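ARCHIVE CARD
CATEGORY: sequence design from structure
SOURCE FIELD: tokenized fold
FIELD CONTENT:
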């Protein structure tokens, strides 16, 4: 894992989730390697919200479930770190993991603005009724970013089961 500063190279931001389809990290890694830039992987905890935002200092957040906060955050950080490390194994791209709070689209946009990222990479929603209901209630992260960002947004679709089975 790389340090927080990337010696002047303009990074890419990739939104990551537990159990996210692997194409998102694979695409982000390939693009970062081809461009010779670092990757900032960002997970947004929707169960937390920002209390104070100051880009020059650490962001202060509060959990909607404070009794679970520390253990859950550490578990997510560990699990995501392992998944990202596996996806980046053997690659040349520097990467780091950032945990954010609040609305996912806005948090990714704030991070990209704060670090002057050249692009934001996100996946398409996962299949299933639960994810569709969440998208209806909360809106699509990819759609919000594509309408409200001044930087490019790359939306990585999930391979269809038939496509991935045919390739194996």
């Amino acid at each position: 894992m790389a340090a927080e500063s990337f010696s002047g190279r303009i990074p890419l931001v990739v939104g990551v989730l537990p159990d996210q389809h692997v194409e998102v990290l694979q695409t982000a890694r390939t693009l970062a390697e081809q461009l010779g830039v670092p990757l900032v992987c960002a997970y947004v905890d929707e169960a937390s919200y920002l209390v104070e935002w100051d880009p020059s200092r650490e962001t202060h957040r509060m959990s909607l479930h404070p009794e679970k906060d520390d253990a859950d955050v550490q578990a997510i950080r560990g699990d995501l770190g392992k998944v990202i490390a596996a996806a980046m194994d053997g690659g040349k791209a520097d990467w780091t993991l950032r945990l954010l709070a609040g609305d996912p689209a806005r948090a990714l946009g704030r991070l990209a603005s704060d670090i002057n990222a050249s692009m934001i990479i996100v996946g398409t929603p996962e299949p299933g009724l639960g994810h569709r209901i969440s998208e209806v209630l909360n809106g699509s992260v990819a759609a919000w970013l594509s309408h409200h960002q001044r930087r490019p947004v790359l939306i990585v679709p999930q391979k269809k089961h038939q496509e991935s089975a045919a390739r194996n």
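CARD ANNOTATION: The chain is about 40% helix and 20% strand. The CA atoms of residues 21 and 158 lie 6 Å apart.
SHELF: design records, drawer C
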